Amino acid sequence: MLLTEAYAEVLLFRDGVIGFTNQFAATLASVGFICFLLGRVTGAMLLRIVSAHKMLGLYALLNTIICFVVFLKLGWLSVLCVFLSYFFMSIQFPTIFALGIFGLGAKAKGASAYIVMGIVGGALLPKLMGGVADHYDMSRGFIVPLVCFALVALYGYGWPKLSRAEGLTGFTAKGGH
């Protein structure tokens, strides 16, 4: 094992595989969360002028493409795409939630409960992704979020037909319950 950094954060093994210490991996996770924050802020600004379903469809479509690039194992481009995924994932759940309860009136509380229960997919699908990664490799595991993002893109672009509404732009909440 050869150390390539003075701080021993990055490890280069003889077979050419790069490894990271736990501390460096935590730093990389922080970079991902910063990308998520930047995506949420810029996405919130764009949602004021662009229809929510179109933004959701676009961000999910871009995440589908990004996951495909990771799946292809294109070196540092794939690494960059992992961080871009954080950015484009940022507005998806709140937008799905808002679109899911739009126009439901008194039924919105029940519908919101079902949407929140759907978060269990976020607990189960990483297991599936890990299973694919264990069987093949980590980049191949990205086929799981790729399929999920493709379904979200279909929902976003199909939302006007599903909801019988034209769009949701610059929507502001009124009061509490």
Helical region count?
A: 8
Shape: elongated
Instruction: Summarize model confidence as the mean pLDDT.
Output: 86
Largest sheet: 3 strands, antiparallel
Rg to the nearest angstrom?
A: 19 Å
Which sequence of SSEs, written as H and E, runs from N to C? Answer: EEEHHHHHHHH
Describe this structure in words.
It is a single chain. The chain contains eight helices and three strands, in the order βββαααααααα. The N and C termini lie far apart (60 Å). Strands 1-2-3 form a three-stranded antiparallel sheet. α2 packs antiparallel against α3. The chain is mainly α and 177 residues long.
Topology (SSEs and partners):
Blueprint: E1 2-3, E2 10-12, E3 18-20, H1 22-46, H2 52-71, H3 76-89, H4 92-101, H5 108-117, H6 121-135, H7 138-141, H8 143-163
Antiparallel strand pairs: 1-2, 2-3
Helix pairs in contact: 1-3, 2-3, 2-4, 2-8
Task: Describe, in short, the structure shown.
The protein is mainly alpha-helical. The protein is 67% helix and 5% strand.
Give me some keywords for this one.
8 helices, single chain, elongated, three-stranded antiparallel β-sheet, mainly alpha, disordered N terminus, 177 residues
